[in-house]
Design brief:
Elements lengths: L1 E3 L5 E3 L27 H10 L2 E5 L8 H12 L3 E5 L5 E2 L2 E4 L11 E4 L6 H10 L4 E4 L6 H9 L3 E3 L4 H8 L23
Parallel strand pairs: 3-4, 3-7, 4-6, 7-8, 8-9
Antiparallel strand pairs: 1-2, 5-6
Pfam families: CoA_binding_2
Protein name: CoA-binding protein
InterPro entries: CoA-bd, NAD(P)-bd_dom_sf
């Protein structure tokens, strides 16, 4: 989970597993974390420059975050979206590729929905595929993967949802139900 600070910067909410919490601007990273990610403006620039996004770990299960993100990117953005999962052949009517190496293009952003231990391997695959950015979803934090990608010239974003970031930067959070645009403290009247 994440929230925004007064400066508009998103930060992690306290988690029972890692104890991470929002930090004040200029403060050190959360305990156990040394990597510092791109600023809000830098993330906006990454999304703006990109024309293609590969979703590694795409799922055909509507209950999975990767399904929701793929649905949003395919229906609400101009990105060329490529889905990667070796166990699927089609998701949302789109062809699915077994690996990043099988893609017909060099993806600008590799958006990753994989287990923590798989992240360094996916980072290496992103490097080999010629990606520009490695993007790890909410809850994904792996400094080994970040170091590997950055040492090869990739930008890295960790612990952020690309759908939420895109919608926030483009004024569309309400379209997906994260922000209804309605603020009310009134109770609903029950029909009698």
């Amino acid at each position: 989970m994440s929230t925004e600070t007064a400066t508009g910067e998103a930060c992690a909410l306290p988690s029972p597993t890692d104890g991470a919490a929002c930090a004040l601007p200029g403060a050190a990273p959360a305990p156990g974390r040394t990597w510092i990610g791109p600023s809000q403006q830098e993330r906006f620039a990454l999304l703006r420059r990109a024309t293609s996004i590969a979703i590694v770990g795409a799922s055909n299960n509507p209950a999975r975050a990767s399904f929701f993100v793929a649905t949003y990117l395919l229906s609400s953005t101009a990105y060329d979206v490529y889905l990667v999962n070796p166990r699927e052949s089609e998701i949302l009517g789109q062809p699915v590729y077994a690996s990043l190496a099988d893609l017909p293009v060099r993806p600008d952003i590799v958006d990753v929905f994989r287990r923590h231990d798989d992240l360094p391997g996916v980072a290496q695959e992103a490097v080999e595929a010629g990606a520009s950015t490695l993007w790890l979803q909410l809850g994904s934090w792996n400094e080994e993967a970040a170091a590997l990608a950055e040492s090869s010239g990739l930008a890295v974003v960790m612990d952020r949802c690309i759908k939420i970031e895109h919608a926030r930067f483009h004024g569309g959070l309400h379209l997906a139900g994260f922000d209804t645009g309605v603020i009310s403290s009134r109770r609903q009247l029950l029909a009698r």
